[in-house]
């Protein structure tokens, strides 16, 4: 089925470890996004990529880096994980008009 | 401020109508969206409304838009237990069209 695929689905890290969250979409969308979801705080934008070759900071970029590898793939890297990065991470891509997002199923990350 | 506001909880009986409300921030937002999130899953686009419309109906869903009051609502007719989920409204503001603003979500519980 067409959509947004995220890996892994679950991850436990120790403080200071690094990891990369992978995201791929097969809908030929130009823009892609990384959000984190925390209880009571809704969705917060970490980084986005308006098109292949460009990336920009969102609301909460500190502690993260991203790579838009090609049109399909947009990865999120935690260089030195901290407990404050415990969250559910969602990747999304955006269609042309009406510009709605398609979300992946999420990565549940716990940093201990 | 840039907060999209929603009430946190709503409880209805199966077969009744549900109305979920949202107050958004940018009176010139071009598109407004409703997303549904089931437990353990990503957000799914339910419906959207373009800013030049007052109402949109899509099967059991009715979206009402009051631009003067910056108020958006989602009515679900004949609510079923499968409608139990968290519902998010989101706006596409004219400033920063890649940075959508999401509400914190309304948890709908449908009682059998």
Give the tags.
heterodimer; A: 112 residues; mainly beta; seven-stranded mixed β-sheet; four-stranded antiparallel β-sheet; B: 112 residues; six-stranded mixed β-sheet; five-stranded antiparallel β-sheet; 0% helix; 54% strand; globular
Structural account:
- The complex is a heterodimer of chains A (112) and B (112).
- With 112 residues, chain A is mainly beta.
- Chain A contains no helices and eleven strands.
- In chain A, the strands form two sheets. In chain A, strands 2, 4, 5, 6, 9, 10 and 11 form a seven-stranded mixed β-sheet that branches. In chain A, strands 1-3-8-7 form a four-stranded antiparallel β-sheet, with no helix packed on it.
- Chain A starts with a strand and ends with a strand.
- In chain B, strands 2, 4, 5, 9, 10 and 11 form a six-stranded mixed β-sheet that branches. In chain B, strands 1-3-8-7-6 form a five-stranded antiparallel β-sheet, with no helix packed on it.
- Chain B is globular, with a radius of gyration of 13 Å.
- Chain B starts with a strand and ends with a strand.
- The interface between A and B is medium-sized, with 24 and 22 residues.
